[in-house]
C-alpha cells in the first residue's frame, strides 16, 4: 500500500527500531532545535514536547522511552516534581537536566536526583552527544 | 504542588503546532477540560507522538506545522491508525482525498468553547459520549 506513495520521508515505527527514543522538554526553541536536530541526525527518534507536563505524559505513555532531557526553564519546582513523578512510574529512567545560566539555581540543582547529570549551557554538539551516550543503554 | 500526571481513564489527545502561543492556549483549554494532552512542536514530533501513544483518542493538527503539512501528517498517521479521529485547525483541507474526507476543520481564530465544541463533535461522531 505504501509503495510509490508520495510525501515526506517519515520514519515508520519499524524503521526506527534501532534508534533510541528520546523526549526533549524545552520551551526555548533555539536550544530545543539544536538538541533535537543534533540527536535526530545521530539516528535517534526525538520527540520535542511542548512543556514539562507534556514531556512527562509522553514519557510514561510510550511503550518504551530511553531518555528524558529536561531544561531548567521548565524544570523549576514543578519540573522537579515531574521528574519525581516520572521516576515513580519508570524507576531508573535516564534523565539529563540542561541548566540555563539565568534560570537554574543551586537550590534546584541540589534537589535533582543524584543520577541526573547537569548539562550547562552553552554546550557543544559533542558535549551533548557524550552526555547522552553515557546514559543510553548499550544494547 | 506542581502539575500532576494524568489519572487513568482520561481521554488522550495529541496536539501539534509550531506556534508556541497557540499550542499553549490549546493545551491549557484541553487540560482544564480533563484531557491528557501530549503537546508537541513540529510535524515530526507530532507524528511520532501520534504513532507511539497507545490508546490515543484524538489528533489535533495545524496546517502551520513547519516541517510537515497537516494533510501529509494525517495521511502518514492514518496509514498506521486508519480510524484515529482527527481535528484539523486552519484552512479547510482539499476535498478530493478520501483519507481526509472525515476530518473536520476548526478555523482560526477560535474561542475555548469553539475548540471544545469541535472536540466533542468529533467524539460524538465516533459514537461515544463527549
Write a compact overview of the structure shown.
Chain A has 139 residues and is α/β, with parallel strands linked by helices. Chain A has 5 helices and 5 strands. At the A-B interface, helix 1, strand 2, helix 2 and helix 3 of A face helix 1, strand 2, helix 2 and helix 3 of B.
Question: Which percent range fits the helix content of chain A?
Answer: 25-40%
Q: What helical percentage do the residues of chain B reach? A: 25-40%
- Give unreliable regions of chain A as ranges: 1-8, 12-17
Overall mean confidence score, pLDDT of chain A: 82
Largest sheet of chain B: 5 strands, parallel
**What is the number of helices of chain B?**
4
Strand content of chain B: 15-25%
Q: How do the strands line up in the largest sheet of chain A?
A: 2-1-3-4-5
Order of helices and strands of chain B, N to C? EHEHEHEEH
Provide a count of the helices of chain A.
5
Shape type of chain A: globular
**Strands across the major sheet of chain B, in which order?**
2-1-3-4-5
Radius of gyration of chain B: 14 Å
Oligomer: heterodimer
User: Ranges of chain B with pLDDT <50 over ≥5 residues?
Assistant: none
H/E element sequence of chain A = EHEHEHEHEH
**Alpha-carbon distance between the two ends of chain B:** 29 Å
Strand elements of chain A, count: 5
| C-alpha termini separation of chain A | 32 Å
How many strands, which pairing sense, and closed or not: the largest β-sheet of chain A? 5 strands, parallel
Please state the structural category of chain B. Answer: alpha/beta
Amino acid at each position: 500500500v505504501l509503495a510509490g506513495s508520495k510525501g515526506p520521508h517519515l520514519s515508520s515505527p519499524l524503521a526506527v527500531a534501532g534508534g533510541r527514543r528520546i523526549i526533549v522538554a524545552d520551551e526555548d526553541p533555539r536550544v530545543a532545535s539544536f538538541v533535537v536536530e543534533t540527536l535526530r541526525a545521530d539516528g535517534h527518534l526525538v520527540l520535542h514536547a511542548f512543556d514539562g507536563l507534556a514531556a512527562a505524559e509522553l514519557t510514561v505513555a510510550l511503550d518504551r522511552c530511553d531518555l528524558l532531557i529536561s531544561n531548567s526553564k521548565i524544570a523549576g519546582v514543578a519540573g522537579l516534581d515531574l521528574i519525581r513523578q516520572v521516576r515513580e512510574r519508570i524507576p531508573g529512567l535516564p534523565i539529563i537536566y540542561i541548566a540555563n545560566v539565568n534560570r537554574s539555581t543551586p537550590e534546584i540543582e541540589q534537589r535533582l536526583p543524584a543520577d541526573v547529570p547537569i548539562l550547562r549551557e552553552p554546550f557543544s554538539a559533542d558535549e551533548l552527544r557524550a552526555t547522552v551516550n553515557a546514559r543510553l543503554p548499550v544494547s | 504542588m506542581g502539575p500532576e500526571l494524568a489519572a487513568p481513564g482520561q481521554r488522550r489527545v495529541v496536539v501539534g503546532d509550531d506556534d508556541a502561543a497557540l499550542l499553549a492556549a490549546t493545551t491549557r483549554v484541553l487540560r482544564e477540560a480533563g484531557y491528557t494532552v501530549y503537546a508537541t512542536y513540529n510535524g515530526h514530533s507530532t507524528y511520532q507522538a501520534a504513532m507511539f501513544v497507545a490508546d490515543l483518542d484524538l489528533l489535533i493538527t495545524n496546517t502551520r506545522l513547519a516541517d510537515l503539512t497537516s494533510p501529509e501528517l494525517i495521511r502518514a498517521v492514518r496509514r498506521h491508525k486508519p480510524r484515529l479521529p482527527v481535528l484539523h485547525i486552519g484552512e479547510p483541507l482539499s476535498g478530493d482525498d478520501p483519507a481526509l474526507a472525515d476530518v473536520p476543520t476548526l478555523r482560526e481564530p477560535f474561542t475555548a468553547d469553539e475548540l471544545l465544541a469541535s472536540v466533542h463533535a468529533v467524539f460524538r461522531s465516533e459514537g461515544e459520549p463527549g
